[in-house]
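Forwarding the complex inputs:
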Amino acid sequence: MQDEKVFIDQLLHPKTQHEAFRELLQLYQKPLYNHIRNIVLNHDDTDDVLQNTFIKVFQNIKNFKGESKLFSWMYRIATNEALSFLQQKAKKNGISNEEAQQKALNKLESDVFFDGDEIQLKLQKAIATLPEKQQLVFKMKYFEELKYEEISEIVDTSVGALKASYHLAVKKIEEYLKIN
Amino acid sequence: MKAFNLDKEPKIKTGFKTPENYFESFETKMLAQLPKEEPKVIKFQVRKLYIVSAIAAVILAFIAIPFYFDSNYSQESISVESYLSYQLTTEDIIEKLTQEDIDALENTLALSDDGLEEYLSETQNLKFYLNE
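Prediction (whole assembly, two chains):
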């Protein structure tokens, strides 16, 4: 991408913001969709969260200080939106986050927008047994193939801690897949 | 039980799909939500400030003009007390007073009975007041 500062200026200027926002969407809608979908699992919920994410990006771009990359900043917004969406949904249904995730997993088998085979479904179930942060790190590293440095900026955790977290997650998942 | 090694096994995909043309329609949907470029509108607060400033300037001009054209115009002549005494009669003021105001005035003035008798004996409307 062109110089980020120039691009942000274009996003802020009324005359150029429409075109700049189109470019932003084309660049980030797919990776952010995948990131959110990995967290919330269901397509319709992902669609809602993705919309909210881009609205927040657009509303807050004027406050973006450039302390991190635009990419990390947007991923951070998407992560927060997805996690708070899940919390609100669980609260609304009067169940815990874990129960809500289990419910979403059970629905996955009949989901028309999921064509995973047995091992894919098993992997999702194995991930669900991990603590929230480990789940997030595993998904970002394994499915989204982000670098540790990128994940570090997004979740605000050191690279060393992320490596340890991912290693632990892999061990637990392998153990789950071995038993089941 | 077969050992499972995630790094050695072929990569397991998520299995998630999206509806057909989802991203194209998502882009259109999001762009439609952007605010349109609008002509510059002066905010109401700013406009109000202009109006208040203009009114203040006119009032200032009304006050300043007599001073400018008539140097003998003394400050006493525009004092509030003079203005009121010129504009309002005693009857006008009495009409505006409530019983509470009168009571408050009596307390403030603290008239003695002797003082009151002296005042009444001097006034020509004594009979009128005594019959009230």
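Residues 97-132 of chain B form one domain.
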